[in-house]
Amino acid sequence: GCKKVDTASGSTGTGSDTIKIGVFEPLTGANAAGGEAEVEGIKIANKLYPEVLGKKVEVVVADNKSDKAQATTAVARLIEKDKVSAIIGSWGSSFSMAAGDLVKKNKVPAVGASCTNPLVTKGNDYYFRVCYLDPFQGTVMANYAFKSGAKKAAIIQEVSNDYAVGLATYFKEAFVKLTGDPNSVVTTVNYNTNDQEFGAQLSTVKAANPDVIFAPGNFTESALVMKQARQLGITVPFLGGDTWDIDEFTSVGGADVEGATISTFFDDSAPVTDEGKKFVEAYKKEYPDKNMAAVSALGYDAYLVIIKAIEAANSSDSTAIRDALAKTKDVEGATGKLTFNADGDPDKDSAIIKEVKNGKFTYKDTVTISK
Amino acid sequence: MLKIENLCVSYGGIEAVKGISFEVPDKSIVTLIGANGAGKSTTLRTVVGLVKPQSGKIIYNDKDITGKSSEEIVRNGITLVPEGRRIFPNLTVYENLKIGAYMRKDDYSEDIKWVYDLFPRLKERSWQFAGTLSGGEQQMLAVGRALMSKPELIMMDEPSLGLAPLVVKGIFEIIKEINKLGVTILLIEQNANLALRVADQGHVLETGRIKLSGKGQELLENAEVKAAYLGNKKHELAQQ
Amino acid sequence: MTPDNKSINETIDKNIVLRTENMTMQFGGVVAVDNLHLTIREHQIVALIGPNGAGKTTAFNMITGVYTPSSGKIFLHGEDITGMSPDKITRKGVARTFQNIRLFKDLSVFDNIIIAKHFSMHSNIFSATLRLPGAVRAEKKMREESEELLERMGLADVKDAVASSLPYGQQRHLEIARALATKPELLLLDEPAAGMNPQETEDLTASIKQIQQDFNLTVFLIEHHMDLVMEISDRIYVLDFGQTIGKGTPAEIQNNPRVVEAYLGVDDDAEN
Amino acid sequence: MNNTKKRNIICTAILAVIVLALIYFANNYLDAYIVRILNLCAIYTIIGLSMNLINGFTGLFSLGQAGFMAIGAYTVAIFTLPLDMRSTIFYMEPMNPAIAGIHLSFVPALLLGGVIAGFAAFLIGAPVLRLRGDYLAIATLGFSEIIRILLTNLQSITNGALGINKIPDNANNMWWSFGVAIVILILTALLINSSYGRAFKAIREDDIAAEAMGINLFKHKVMSFVVGGFFAGVGGGLYASLLGTVDPKQFYFTLTYNFLLIIVLGGMGSISGTVIASFIVTCGLELLRTFDEPLTVAGYEISLFRPGFSMVIFSLLLMIIVLFYSKGLMGRTELTWDRIFNFFGKMKSKKAPKSTEGGSTK
Amino acid sequence: MTLELFLQNLANGIAVGSLYALIAVGYTMVYGILRLINFAHGDIFMMAAYFTFFGVAVFHLPWYFACIFVVVLTAGLGMLIERAAYRPLRDAPKDSVLVSAIGVSFLLENLATYLFSGKPKAFPDFLGLMSTVSLGTVSIQKVALVVPVVLIVCMSILLFVINKTKLGMAMRAVSKDYEIARVMGININLVIAATFGIGSGLAAVGVILWGMKYPQVSPLMGVMPGLKCFIAAVIGGIGNIKGAVLGGFILGLIEVMLVAFFQPLTGYRDAFAFILLILILLVKPTGLIGEKTTEKV
Ligand SMILES: Nc1ncnc2c1ncn2[C@@H]1O[C@H](COP(=O)(O)OP(=O)(O)OP(=O)(O)O)[C@@H](O)[C@H]1O
Ligand SMILES: Nc1ncnc2c1ncn2[C@@H]1O[C@H](COP(=O)(O)OP(=O)(O)OP(=O)(O)O)[C@@H](O)[C@H]1O
Ligand SMILES: [Mg+2]
Ligand SMILES: [Mg+2]
């Protein structure tokens, strides 16, 4: 079918009266869900801020097909063919890292929305991001677990997922430090991406009798882990990372993920900034029957940061934008005030804790870690 | 019963049959002889619908069956004993016979007995997988399988290929016997001596064309045929 | 079974190319070849005949290493080759053709021949790929020999044709030529005249004789065409149900009642 | 005869010059996007050739290419990674001290990658190549998955799921990728047309007959497998260097399907077919991206055009090619000068009568 | 390891094993007749999951009706795929058919992503089969009790059809020689279509139960089960139905037990599946009870 195009969004006009921002995200393949959520946020941002410096901003989306080689060609295409001034993306740190060299070499700045791997920005002057990093998230959850009284934790990690492994490592480190007990992590069990059967791992976890289970990983597998855990009669709370903060996690997990607790970037029920409120409102209007994913807000912020940098640089020149991005300070985004450090990472020191209640992630707490 | 008119068949660009016409009268035995690659098998394969002819007509019992699907043609009462046996190796001997009667709706247990009587060897091996039979055993099975469909016209493509002299003789006996039972036979043979002896009519094929036709006995005595196909040696040796 | 004196003598007999002792092959319950004793001497043409399913091809398959005998031994020039792999046996000078022609169908006639010379090439894969002098020389020699053989077998004018496009008779010839290309001492032919008309069979008979002499071969063949067998064989073995029911000269075989009964049949339909 | 030979040599020489000039031009004047795609084409050609050697020419139905690639890719990644960056990259578990201090420059690393992949091919080939047909396929596929799982789990060597990033960029220069591709192309062609190549083809055609011709099946199958593994390893090394990052997920067994697709599309047993198909597939995927972009006609956005659509089209096109050219674009034939000249010769002779015909019909 | 834990894992293993077996049977069946590794089988399975999702969660069909709807629709899809992608290649080389299968697999995955988005959906619960019951100390999902029963029923029906009916005989004949099967008067297209229909229908039955145990539906959900069940089929001897069942159980049990008994090796779980596969093939090159094919020379 066809729908009438909003004059504000997808125009195909080119020329000097537009500034192009490229987006590369996995829109097909294994990571399509995450990519889609980010693009939603970016589109909203584009709708709310369609212009900068009096020029129209055009968002060019390229699918990286959840594949590294495709990620690099997608970015090369954005740079060379579409001549974008800046780039947003990508969900999945490995795709961002594959594109890192390209943006650096071509001097086009990129802002990652949710790529939490420390190496994305490290040593790359052209890569920034608006999310906090894996180590931070792991530490946050360890603090939360400790605060809520847990003395013994079990870890279930998706061993073939760099993100999950990262979170698990930092969780363990922090939790052991907090409890002062080297054996406070009673067991660590592994599974692989795409596994669907976790009975054996969960039996071990059950036998170890932890107070809490930290199970960072892809939301699809995690939902199944929790379902199967409940079936086995494991009742202790599950903690996880931001990847669970997506509608499908609760819809797949159903009643069994009730009580699952995560750290995330954004809470749509209680946005901390005005920008956040604005975003939530627009999102609700655009997608009335969707629960918002936190990464959508990050996508929104990535766009915003770039717009602000273009304004500050007063130019659509890529290098100028990069320099302006590096100086980003106290830019109000949906997820909070953003200030980039020397690595290009945001100085975020607090994370939002959410818990599944009645089939929805709801705000629980905010944990602040002093650095 | 079967009438072939000006049949042309080609594989890709190569013309294998270049305008053949002949008839197979009801209840007769007609044989096609000719060198390897003359187009004999191709003719049979075309009749049974495995190859589509380029031009020409195949009339069976006054019905044009040119270009019809194999199933339909076979349903009309034609069957083929294919070149190279082609029995179903993963089916038992017994099942191979049963599948020969695939289209029949009546009771065919008598016919199985009949085939077993014709080829006692098959009865011994009834539960063996056909793939492990020796060449000759497989040929017997192929003939037996064809008989199971109770055909009006049975086309045999070199049934004596690789068979022991005793069995060859047996096969020709059987050919005569089933012909007596009213089955029309179109026979391809390398063993021209024997073939022409049982045949009412023979056609000699050479590179896709009929070169000579005539009564079996006539051809047997034809000098040209003798020179090209029958060999100079007394063929009695083969029998002794 | 203890080897009797005769077989001990045979072991020493230099003339004996191939000898089998109690060669037996069982498939499940079926004894396809039962205690077969063969003795094939140099420059002889020996035939193996018998009804269908007698175990002739199976015997060939054991001799050429395709099957390993369930029991018994096979000696080539006194050397035990039982259970050796087919390629090794070929390299020892035994070549064969197959009952159902097995050519390299999609390759040219020339390639079919030259492939049979590959094993005699001593250059390794690197020098062959990089066309080092040794390999180039070997290749040249292989080519020349192949051309020569094709010429000799009357296949020279179809040398670039794809093997499967040849008429059947020529395919049979090609298969024999290919076997000869391995420079065998012992040539095994499995029903070479199958699918040939009497005239062609006669031609083949002459050609086998000729080849045997030209290439100084020992030939061991399976055939159902009795005119061919009787004409060229020095000795004949007759198998039935895996058992040897007769051996001897063609004349002896033709008059062996067991053989006549089991295989040849009595000619009751004398001249029409 | 001699004339055509001379003509062919001249044509080949001219082609070589043209190719070199094109590479020079592309490398220096074309934008990074196109260069990147061309590089991918070259690398896919290498791996396609390696797979065609095993599957197309030797007739071994192997699905292990992703595994060989992974080995080559990781070898290059591990050994070319600058020493001072290793602790940063291996931040979770330090690199195994046995290799932490070893650094190789690109070429030795690339060759080492090929050698290790070839050795792995030997190790796996020894048991597995005795299997036939589909059993061989699943066993080799399994082997490539085992490699991937090892890469995930041997964290101190491979950095596990985190993968290795910041691999120095050596292959994003067309001289490298095309240079290696051309060398491998020539080597493959030489091998195929040598006595060994004929033996491989004989095994493909009829292994029992090949064995009866004195060809040691097992030895030759292993040879083909090892050479194929070596080439794939080298291709994998280039791939790693081009992408700058490797992780185990990249080498999921479905990666092999891409190359299977390339060789079947080009023609199993055709070197030139593989080259053509590599370019078609790689460039085709890029060209089709247009279908992912929203299309607006007269102010209406056609909602058919959205991300994912290009992949649907791609799979459909693929099906169409497979269905209508079931032997691939080239079948088992090669694009030779003789064929090209014959083709044009025919065109000419066809054209002549056609022009007169044209007058009458139009 | 306590007895309780062992029993729990055993129950798990049997449940997983019978699911593998159920899907492997469909795989093996298509292979047995067409000698084609139907790489698209896992994706047909995935489509069946979407059919179930739409049937139950969207159209709210009653469970029995939904089951019929899904099985029939999936069988139809299988037959459609056969018609469009395999039948035109009847006389083509095997590799082309394989690539066509891979193409179908790509197409289905991409189409599903395009139509239903890459985001997973929740699989609906039928008859409360997702809930658990306790048998002594072992707690087990109800569906796990149903699977073996369904498996035995399906397998018996299938064995009967293949070995005892005319259609089955025709299937076996077609599997070896299309041409001569035609000459026997067999409509081979019909027979092959029927085979695909049955195989795909089994995938649908499989997915209804699988989804109950692993309740998520996504475009790539068929890849892993597809591969695992293929392994199971090969372990047992591909083309052999009993073999597929045996292979499914062996694979399911070993996977679960490995993780249970050798925790640190969990990461290598899939590797073990393949090592097991390769080892079995080395000892028995055509699988545990695969047909032994000594080629008659
Ligand atoms: N499938 C095919 N593709 C291409 N050419 C073929 C095919 N089948 C047969 N031919 C060619 O068609 C011609 C006639 O073949 P056909 O099999 O009909 O001969 P024939 O008289 O039966 O010979 P034979 O005595 O060897 O069986 C031959 O030249 C053969 O090479
Ligand atoms: N691989 C096998 N598996 C099982 N049985 C076999 C196998 N090969 C041969 N046989 C059996 O062994 C017996 C001898 O077969 P063989 O092929 O040796 O016969 P033959 O003498 O060559 O007959 P023909 O003249 O018909 O070719 C036959 O009964 C056959 O069924
Ligand atoms: Mg013929
Ligand atoms: Mg035989």
Count the domains of chain E: 1
Rg estimate of chain D, integer Å:
23 Å
Secondary structure tally: strands of chain E = 4
Query: Distance between the terminal alpha carbons of chain E, to the nearest Å?
Result: 54 Å
Bound molecules: adenosine-5'-triphosphate, magnesium ion
Q: Which geometry of chain E do the CA atoms define? A: globular
Number of helices of chain E: 11
**SSE order of chain E in H/E notation?**
HHHHEEEHHHHEHHH
Number of strands of chain D: 2
Determine the fraction of residues in helical runs of chain D and give it as a percent range. Answer: over 70%
Uncertain ranges of chain E: none
- Please identify the oligomeric state: heteropentamer
Q: Give the helices and strands of chain D as they follow along the chain.
A: HHHHHHHHHHHHHHEEHH
Question: What number is the mean pLDDT of chain D?
Answer: 85
What would the average pLDDT of chain E be, to the nearest integer? 86
CATH top level class name of chain E = Mainly Alpha
User: Based on CA inertia axes, which overall geometry of chain D fits?
Assistant: globular
CATH architecture of chain E: Orthogonal Bundle
Pfam families (chain C): ABC_tran, BCA_ABC_TP_C
Keywords (chain C): ATP-binding, Nucleotide-binding, Transport
InterPro entries (chain C): AAA+_ATPase (IPR003593), ABC_AA/LPS_Transport (IPR051120), ABC_transporter-like_ATP-bd (IPR003439), BCA_ABC_TP_C (IPR032823), P-loop_NTPase (IPR027417)
Domain ABC transporter (chain C): 18-266
